[in-house]
Amino acid sequence: MAKKRGTKQVTGKAKDAATTMADSTEQQEPKTPDVFCNENMESYREHVLNHMKELWINWRSDLLRYNVTNKKITLKAAFNRKPPNGLDEKEWKWLIKEVYSSEDFKKVSARNSANRVHYPKELAHRTGSKPFRQVIWKDLGGNKGMKPKLVDIFHSTRKKGTSLPNVETAKKLDEIRETMEKDPSLSDVQIAQKVFNSKSRDQVVGFGGGMKVAYLRGQRPSREELEAELNSTKKQNQILEDRMEAIQDENNQLKGRIGSVESQMKMFQDMLVNQLNVTLTPEN
User: Fold this and answer.
1) What is the torsional sign of CA 216, 219, 223, 225?
2) How far is the first Cα of the chain from the last one, in angstroms, to the nearest whole number?
3) What is the pTM of this model?
4) pLDDT band at 140 (very low <50, low <70, confident <90, very high)
5) Could you give the CA distance from residue 191 to residue 183 in angstroms, rounded to a whole number?
6) Which of 111, 113, 156, 276 has the maximum number of C-beta atoms within 10 A of its C-beta?
7) Mean pLDDT, the chain, as a whole number?
8) For 9-62, how does the pLDDT look when each residue is reduced to its tens digit (9 = 90+)?
């Protein structure tokens, strides 16, 4: 029977390789845990959903701007045209009919357009694609626990080199400083809304896209927390009312005792006068 060439040699090398791999695996250090792993992902649920909602709103607004507004055509004309890249005809027509043509969307668009009128192009930021949050975090000391004011953020995001690029930006910066000095109790949100004459209930002018009023004001209490606080206040008020009534009752009792003592003293005085047959004068 013929013997296969190289069979013993190949088998031996395979065994040696397997043994070496097993030994090296045993000698390896344990894997470093994944630093991006979070067991409590549910705590990020609301933040992630809000971010996805913001991306959706921005995306559909870009579709309207680039395919309708910039082309200076009506929604009716866009409805009958070829849909934008990445959308099929059904999706594009649904957006036009259900979103862009709705009264709520038109009201929001009109309000945003009115807000943009109060913000001149000369005041546009000069950070390019660099987010304002990165400027706040890295350039203005946010990573060291510092909380920069609106005046610092405005200057850092509008400067060209070390100075401001135009007179309009310099005047607006001075206006921010004057408003802060005039009323130090104003928050950054109030200053921004006052200086930029903004009526936006969501975005805060001067802090870049994605920075909302809620982030700067802090998290507002939930309805359950407000109801609990209201109930606690009502209980405290009831306790105060009960104490007031108790104090009033004590005052009434004290007045009654004082009246009784005065009557007894008057009777005692009359008895002395009768016994001594002495007429008391007002001086006595």
Assistant:
1) negative
2) 154
3) 0.45
4) confident
5) 9
6) 156
7) 78
8) 445 555 565 565 555 555 555 667 666 666 677 777 877 888 788 888 888 988
The pair of structure tokens assigned to 75 is 């929604």
Half-sphere exposure of 76 (CA within 13 A, CB side): 0
CB 201, CB 213: distance < 8 Å: yes
Question: Which residue type sits at 121?
Answer: K
Domain ranges of the chain: 58-101, 121-217, 223-249
- State the amino acid at position 16 in one-letter form: D
Instruction: Render 24-45 in DSSP notation, one character per residue.
Output: HHHHSPPPPPPTT--TTGGGGH
Q: How far apart (Å, rounded) are the C-alpha atoms in residues 196 and 158?
A: 15
Q: Which residues sit opposite 160 in a β-bridge? A: 163
Where are any strands of DSSP class E within 46-99? none
- Cα–Cα distance measured from residue 70 to residue 43, given in angstroms and rounded to the nearest whole number: 41
Max Cα–Cα distance, the chain, nearest Å: 162
